[in-house]
Amino acid sequence: MALVLAPEPPVEDWLDALDTQIKRSPSFFDGRPVVLDLGALPIEQPNVAGLLHTLHDRGIRIIGTEGAHPSWQGLEPWAPLHANTTRPARPIDVPDEPRQISPNDLTSLVIDQPVRSGQSVVFEKGDVSVIGSVASGAEVIAGGSIHVYGTLRGRAIAGLTGNHHARIFCRRMEAELLAIDGVYQTADDMNAALRGKPAQAWLAGEAMMLATLD
Amino acid sequence: MATVVVVTSGKGGVGKTTSTAALGAALAKQDQNVVVVDFDVGLRNLDLVMGAERRVVFDLINVVQGDAKLPQALIRDKRIDTLSLLPASQTRDKDALTAEGVTRVIDELRERFDWIICDSPAGIERGATLAMRHADTAVVVTNPEVSSVRDSDRIIGMLDAKTARAEKGERIEKHLLLTRYDGARASRGEMLKTEDVLEILSIPLLGIIPESEEVLRASNLGAPVTIGTPNSPAAKAYFDAARRLRGETLVVKVPAQRRGFVARLFGRRAVA
Fold first, then answer.
1. Cis peptide before A10 (omega within 30 of 0)
2. % of chain B surpassing 70 pLDDT
3. Rg over CA atoms, chain B
4. Which of A12, A139, A164, B48 is least enclosed, having the fewest CB within 10 Å?
5. CA-nearest residue of chain A to B151?
C-alpha cells in the first residue's frame, strides 16, 4: 500500500507541517512507497524538481506522481532514487542547529512526589530518582539504577534491560523486593539489620549484595 | 464558592460514613450550608447514620437519571436547618451512576450549598472514582493499621490521577483523618504510630478521632456524634476537624488515655 502526499501551496508551510510530523514519528515514512499528488499546486511551473529533492532529503521514497501538469519539468528523478531498496539508505543528516533535548532522549527520570501504592513507574532507558517514598504495593522499574530519597517500602527493579552494574540506593530500606538484572531478593531474604537504614544494593557475580550507606 | 469534599479510604469499615455524617453536622452547626451525599449505591448507610431512613422518597439515582428533581430528593435534617442529605438508592447498583449525570447533580448542588460532602463507597472501582471525580478536597479516612494505610495510599494516588482537578493539572487538597484511634493500644505499641502513618502517607493531618462508645452508639441511634453527644471527645475532634477544613489552624490533640490514678492502680477492671 502506498501513501499519498499532497503538497498544498504555500509549499514552505506544508513542508514545515511535514517536518513536525516526521519529528513526532521519525520512522513513519521508513520504507513506505509514497505517491505524490501534485494536483493542488498552481499551474504556473512550480519547482517540482526542488520539491522532489527536498522530500528525498527527508528520506521519503517517492514511487510516482499524479495530478502533474504535462508542461511541468523535473519530474524524472524520483523513480531511480530507491529503485531496488526496500529501506531507503538515508543520507546522514548534519544537524545545523544544536539538537533540542526532547523527553524521549532523556536517560534519567526524576519523580518529585511519592510513588503511591498500586502505582508503577517504568523507565527502561536509564536511571530513576524518586524524591519521596515508594509505598508498600508500589513498584519502580528502571533500565538503570534506582535512587529513592525517602523510604523504599515497595519493589525496586533495576537493570531491567540487562544492566548488571545497576544499583539501588535508598535513604531508608523497608523494601518488599529488590531486583537487579533478574537477580532478586524478597524482604524475607534480606539482612534484618539493614531494615530502616540507608542502604544500597548491587550485584557481585550472581549474588545480590546489600550494605548500609554510612 | 462551594467546596466539594470526598470522604474516601479504599478500605471498608474504617469510618467513612460515620465521619461524613459527623463532619457534615459539625460544619452545619458552624452555620455552613451543608449537604451530605451518599455515593454508596446499593449499600446505602448514610441515611441510617443521619437518622433519615424513614423519610427517603427519591434518591441520587433518580436525580442522576432525570426521574426526579434535586429538591425532591434532598432531605433536610430535622435538628439542624442548614444540613441536608441526598440519599443513595438501595435497590440499584453502581452501574446506574453515569459520569454526565453525576456532573450535572454536583453542579446543581454547588449552586445551593457551601459544602457538598460525598460519602464514597469502599473500593477503587466505578462508585469510588465517580464519588471523587469532582472533589476539590479529599478527606482520607484511615485507621492506624497497615492494611488501611496501604489502601489509603492507593486512594491518594488515584486522587492525584483520576479527579477532574488532577486532569486539568490543578491540585486537589488532601487531608488525613485518623479514626478509631485507641489510646490504650497505641501506648502498648499495638497500633501504628501517628507519625508513622503521616510519614507513609505524607499528607496533612485533619484530626485524630478516638475509638469510642459514643461514636458507635451515635451511628446506631441515627444521630451523628456531633449532634448526639457534642461534648464527647470524639465530637470535639470532629468539630476541630471541621474548623481545619474551613482553613483554621489548630493544634491536633492526640487523644490520651482517660484513666485516673485509681484506675491506673487497678488496671482495666476499675469502674470509672
1. yes
2. 94
3. 18
4. A12
5. A117
What CA–CA distance (Å, rounded) separates A145 from A129? 8
Cβ atoms of residues A163 and A146 within 8 Å: no
All three cell numbers of A158: 533495576
- Site from A117, A130, A140, A155 to mutate, B interface, most B CB atoms within 10 angstroms: A117
Instruction: Give the pLDDT confidence score for residue A33 in this predicted structure.
Output: 75
Most A CBs within 10 Å, among B192, B196, B200, to test the A interface: B200
Q: What pLDDT score was predicted for residue A87?
A: 46
A119: helix, strand or coil: coil
Residue whose grid cell is 528525498: A56
Phi, psi for B263 (deg, rounded to 5): -60, -40
Q: Which of residues 137-156 of A touch B (CB under 8 A)?
A: 137-138, 151, 153
| DSSP structural state of residue A146 | E
pLDDT of residue A83: 41
More confident residue, A91 or B202: B202
Tell me: the pLDDT tens digits for B225-253? 999 999 999 999 999 999 999 999 988 88
- Residue A133: its chain B contacts at CB < 8 A? 199-200, 202
Query: What pLDDT was estimated at residue A180?
Result: 96
Residue B124 · residue A116 · CB < 8 Å? no
Q: Is B154 on the interface with A (CB under 8 A)?
A: yes
The chain B residue lying nearest A137, using CA atoms, is B150
Mean predicted confidence (pLDDT) in A201-208: 94
* Res B186: pLDDT: 82
Q: Residue B221, CB half-sphere, CA atoms under 13 Å: how many?
A: 13
List, for residues B42-96, the tens digit of each pLDDT value.
Answer: 899 999 999 998 899 899 999 999 999 999 999 999 999 999 999 998 888 888 8
Q: Would the CA dihedral through B221, B222, B228, B230 be positive or negative?
A: positive
What is the distance in angstroms between the Cα of A179 and the nearest Cα belonging to chain B? 22
